[in-house]
Amino acid sequence: MTGCVCVYVCVFMCVSLSLSAPVSNGALCQCGGERETHGSIATRDYFGAAIVSQWDSSQHSSEYPTDAFGELEFAEAGRRHSHFLRLSCDTTPQMVYTLMTAHWGVPSPNLVVSVVGGEGCEKVKTWVREVLRQGLVRAAQSTGAWIVTGGLREGVSHCVGEAVRDHAAAASSLSQKKVIAVGVAPWGLVHNRQQLINAQGSFPARYYVQNTSRDSCCLDNNYQAFLLVDDGSVGRRGGEMVFRAKMEDYISHQRTGIWGSGSIDVPVLCMLISGDAAMLERVDLSLKKATPWLVLNGSGPAADLICELLDALSAGPMSPPSPQPEVEGSEKTSAELRDRARERVRRHFPAKADLEKLVDRALSIYKNRDLITVFHGEQESSDDFDTVLLKALVRASKRVSSDASEYTEELKLAVAWNRVDIAKSELFNGDIQWKYEDLEDSMTDALINDKPQFIRLFNENGLNILDYLTYRHLEVLYRSLSDSSLAFTLLQRLLTERQGLAICSPKEAVALKSPQNPMSPLSGPSSVKELSLYEVSRLLWDILGDVCEPFYYSLLGLDQSASTRRALKQVNKLLQGDCSYREQSCLYPWASLFIWAVLQNRSEMAVYFWEMAGESVHSALAGCKILRELSKLESETETKLSMKELAQKFENLALDVFSECYQSSESRSFTLLIRQSPVWGKATCLQMATSADARHFFSHDGVQSLLSQIWWGDMKRSTKVWKLVLSFFLPPLIYTNLISFREHEEEVRSEEVPLGRDTESLDGGDATMLSLSDIMQTEEDVEEYAALRDNLKSAPSSNPKRPFVLLRWREFWFAPVTSFLGNVLMYFLFLILFAYILLLDFKPPPPHGPSTLEFVLYFWVFTMVCEEIRQTFFRGNTTLYQRMKLYIEDMWNKCDITAISLFALGMCCRMFPWSYEFGRAVLAVDYMVFTLRLIHIFAIHKQLGPKIIIVEKMMKDIFFFLFFLAVWLLAYGVANQALLYSYDPRPGWIFRRVFYRPYLHIFGQIPIHEMDADKLDEGIECTNNATLVEAGAEPCMSTDHNWLVVILLVIFLLVTNILLVNLLIAMFSHTFSKVQEHSDNYWKFQRYNLIVEYHSRPCLAPPFILISHLHLIIKRHIRKIPSTKIKHFVLEIHGREASRLNTWEAIQKENILFAQNKREREKDSERLKRTSVKVDNVLKQMAEIRDHDRRLRMLETELEYCSSALSWMTEALSQSNLVKTTRPPPALRGKVAYSLPYDTGYMYDLFLWKVASYLSSHGI
């Protein structure tokens, strides 16, 4: 900015016209500087040796690049640095404003309060200090305002600085950033300004403040930024006023909000405190630019004059445009007003010579009185100062924009300042009937600028979210994302990808450019370049994965199975058209806003939208999933932590709501877990919780109860395992009472529903759904139900009851626990068979082998392969790529692929003599892999499962241990080999001595006879001949540095056996203690995956599983019979049943929120807040009582004066002969209660007028 910002420097002035010539004897120029510092030659063509009558900054000074800018450090101030800049009075405000907001990092203002007056050594009144401290700074903090003053340690500027300092000491760091104090001071008046001069910039410039108790012209250290305006003068005031006025006018045309996204311009308010006669010109010029003013009555001459003018001149009209016959009367009225104005100007400024000029200024100010608001500081409380500011700005905006509603403008200001308390008390108190059109812009402003309290307020006072949130509005909200957010970066990346395919073919381009196909700004190519819902859908699909269907695909007319490139072309073609979908109302508005808020990590707003959205448990789990996925992509640590905290908060909310639902109705809560959500792409709560890694949610008893119910099928959960094993080998036992089965809820319900009305309400009960009689509200419903009942009676049963034998057979063998037990038993048989073949029956290659049992083993593995193929390609309705991706992501599926691949490799190799032994070795290793598969099988066990989780976590610690161990093994092994053997080129022996032997040293196997020279075995044949060594001879061990070998061995054993091993033990202990607390949650979470796996598996285990596969092929693909087992985990409900379930869930959520709010209100901090509010109200009432008492005392004083006057007049009249009385004067009969008159002065004047009339009528 150095080359752009200039300053004025006075270069020449005649000595004879020096303002201080009589005192300085011609040493000073009229600019205020010493003449010796000026150049003797003019730098402009119109300068010369001629005498100039009046010094002018624009003519008698030159501009140079600024030489004072950077950061300012106040000596011994102990606070952060301030920014400063020396600039000329002609510098454009746009350049300075951009410098402050973009380069200095000063937050853009929602309000600018320019405090003027009270400069110099003028003493500031106490109540004015209180207004600045309690009113102005607090209002600035609540609205995010800039406070602009002179910035010097004098007068009002110093008071504002002290108020900002006190606020910073008591407020949080976030509140401190909202109060920005900017000093605009004349450069020539600043004390010690030479300390700031540095042509290269000062970072920082050390500034020493003058140590004096009185006010001085030093810069105040409580300001965040200083603009030092240079007009070439020295020691003069007012040189900055022109630039300051232009700066205020420029800011008043900027938009509020993030990146100027607000609905109103930045309000600018000038605040007049005291002031001299010259201040009238400043006020008049600002009023002509429609800048509102707030005048503190009683603060000083200029402010008091303006307040008196408003009161005194308001009695008569101010030069109205009257018809011609009334011109004479109008001139008479104007003359009277001018006389009254002259009288008041003379009273406040008696010594001023240009009285008529001041009167003209005063009358010009009075013409713009609508822009002036008077604050009576001695009568009004400073606590209401922010409300006064709001009223002043609303009054000005109403005058400027006559067609705008006063309340709408006031609402926009309240939203811009984020003052929901003012909006509640002044605008939404029931007196105003708000319409949707009045709240639309403010709602958008509140959404974009993160003001959830206003969103709640608008929603409660007439804003219909269904009318507001169209898809066009939703796209606008996504386009308003901050460019520093992660969601903005991801969306822009997807937008760039779509724009790469947005180039139309030549025929399409000609068609688009033809006059028959006009395009609006939103339907033409510009719409293609803007962010659309397609990018949002792609982003959500990338984040949520395959757990749910893509969002907005049906709205955009896209097919889920279509390729990305094809979808991009369809979207570009759609956006080049009329885009009619944008005018449609959003189908799920609160859920869409919830996603929008979660993507931006806006905690309070996201929680409110979650409260308003339906499907509370599902929405909370979805928010948890989105935030945890975004936290993995976020690079900033603070944002990452906040995302994780908010994700945990949503998981806790889902857990709380589901816990309340489970306590209300167990069966309904089960339905809640497995029903498909139309809002979240037909995903279930269990699927979303699994994807979100919500372990705490899975650890809830309700979730585990559902899983246990699915796990046991129709059998009771109390069934012993030995009974299952016995029934597995002796199937006829299932028809006895050995195993207990649950009664069918469907049969019980079908018998109970026709008998009478279900007494269960929406907020409790045990039934999954209510009876039909509960939902019949009209006669049509009753008739429809009667017709349906008749049809059911007449029609044959579509689902006939199965025979008992078949039914019990299915109940036993189709239970997941039976499938699991069968797989475990058969897997043990498989491992026994595999081990028997490897150890006892592994025949030579053909034609002598393999044996019959080995062929059985091959067939067994083949059935396993068939099952893995079924799990991969015949599950769900997703694409082939998604199925394979989902299969590969599971760790144990990778283990299965490894085991099967090794088995296939070993089986192929053992068939040939040349690879027979290699194949046997591969199969031996493969047996280990198959055996490790047992860990996954036993993860279902309640005691073994958590321990397996702990072992998995400890495996990570072993990798860190092996890394440190490998470093020491390499270091010690290489050094030991180099010291013991000077030359040994055999690779196998090098590897053994470098890695294998040092590793055995850790466990105590130390060959002393091969390392210590004193313990060498004699008689060992060795040689030092390199040729013989290369031929295979044993090299001799070197004994030259044997002492060093022993020392290295001691150090190696010390580090590995003591340091590293104990480090590993400590890591294991830490991991165990950390995981042990949550191992149960981990186990319950993995239990779900295991139950889902065996629930989807056929009832028969390998090798008999082929029978089940053939049965499934016939049933699903030939007979087209859908599966009924899938309903155990995925349930699709519609219509009234879904509506009633959502209503019931919403009621439970409201109960939870009510309980949370109640607990919040009962906290000590909230009680203290309420007590503080009550104490403040009491103090206000006491202050009003004191004020009433003061007024009563004044009335009593006036009454006493009136009584004395009346007594004097009565006594005078009684002593004279003018009045003859017929009766004696009345006497006071004790103390009599009386009521004080409302205006004693008026009554007294009325009495004197009547007495005077009486006396005059009698000629007295």
UniProtKB/TrEMBL annotation:
Transmembrane regions listed in the UniProt entry: 812-837, 895-915, 959-983, 1043-1065
Domain named Ion transport: residues: 827-1079
Signal sequence annotation: 1-20
Compartment list: Membrane
Keyword terms: Ion channel, Ion transport, Membrane, Signal, Transmembrane, Transmembrane helix, Transport
Region (Disordered): 317-336
Annotated InterPro entries: Ion_trans_dom, TRPM, TRPM-like, TRPM_SLOG
Domain annotation TRPM-like: ranges: 426-700
Molecular functions per Gene Ontology: calcium-activated cation channel activity; ligand-gated calcium channel activity
Record membrane topology: Multi-pass membrane protein
One cellular component (GO) term of this entry: plasma membrane
Domain TRPM SLOG: 83-307
Protein name: Transient receptor potential cation channel, subfamily M, member 4a
